[in-house]
Amino acid sequence: MVNGGNAIGSSQFQYIDLWSSPWTWGGESPPGEGTLVSIDSGKTVYFDTTTPILKALVIDNATLIFDDNQDVSLSAEYIVIVNGGILQVGTEANPFQHNAVITMHGQLRSIELPICKKLFQIKKRKKILFWIFLFLVGAKVLALRDGTVDMHGANVVRTWTRLASTATAGSTQITLLQSVNWPVGSLIIIATTGDYLSQGESETRIITAVSSNGLTLTLDSPLNNTHLGVTQSVGSTTVEFRAEVGLLSHNIVFQGLLKLFICNYYLSCIFLNNRFSYRNMEYNDCSMSQWF
Predict the structure, then answer these.
(1) What is the number of H-type helices and E-type strands within the chain?
(2) Cα–Cα distance measured from residue 263 to residue 208, given in angstroms and rounded to the nearest whole number
(3) Which phi and psi (to 5°) does residue 218 adopt?
(4) Among 116, 115, 59, 114, CA closest to 89
């Protein structure tokens, strides 16, 4: 812009509300424990905090976007997304870079949530009878009907590779066949390379350091077992004996909370006429189903 004038660009602006702001909630404090929260009427809310355990979160023709400027955590007994509602934790084009945790709470005696009715027409003696079937999607549930869920975590080069060399028992470092960009603090698994009785020799460790070339990982504790990383020739055939090393953790976690000494059951995800897009995220204690 020379000698004044108007700047022209492709910037887009949108009115949104912050979850942590009292003005989002009519001047009141953000929702507390046991609150039933409803976001509706086309409103867009940026989720920028850590919540207590909400009774329910309903996203009805509205949008809840997780703020990617900080780590955030959402806890609820029920999450229901309907009528074009959107729950967004990163997108395929713009993956979420911070840590986001969604934790669902409930136990065996929690009230089951009804979500869908189907009407059937039956003729009997020239009379038309209607039978209504009410689906109970359960408790401790994320239920999606005619809505969208986007959960896309930080991209990784690969989620698993193999050992480049044998890692002996007592080692605190392993060398990989391929470079990785797994962050420090990640949980990994090193598979067993023993015989058929060695199923218990697979080991999980936390990464405490990564070499500049991404090929050497330092572990939080020594290995209990030896894991092979060798190549052997059998006649004219070359055989690779190399333990697989896999990434178990991601920066987006969707989980059901299991407590000791309480009758628990796993989190359920029910999807009806929906769009559920996800990648590079972690599921713990979950089950999924899809109804139409």
Answers:
(1) 0, 25
(2) 36
(3) -100, 135
(4) 59
Q: Band of the pLDDT at 8, cuts 50, 70, 90?
A: low
CB 157 within 8 A of CB 180: yes
**Residue 227 DSSP code:** B
What does DSSP say about strands 252-256 and 100-104: parallel, antiparallel, or unpaired? parallel
What are the residue boundaries of the structural domains of the chain, listed by start? Answer: 17-154+251-291, 160-247
Instruction: Supply the pLDDT for residue 291.
Output: 46
pLDDT digits (tens, 9 = 90+) for 48-105: 999 999 999 999 999 999 999 999 999 999 898 989 999 999 999 999 999 999 998 8
80 φ, ψ (degrees, to nearest 5)? -125, 130
What the block records as the tokens of 54 is 């909400």
Amino acid identity of residue 148, one-letter, is T
What distance in Å separates the CA atoms of residue 140 and residue 102, rounded to the nearest whole number?
A: 12
Res 194: pLDDT: 87
Q: Which of 269, 263, 284 is nearest to 115 (CA)?
A: 269
Q: H-helix or E-strand containing 138?
A: strand 127-138
> Are 208 and 183 within 8 A, CB to CB?
no
The set of residues, in sequence order, having a beta carbon less than 8 Å from that of 58 and lying 6+ positions away, is 36, 37, 38, 39, 40, 80, 81, 82
pLDDT above 50 for 122: no
Closest C-alpha to 277, from 156, 115, 159, 144: 144
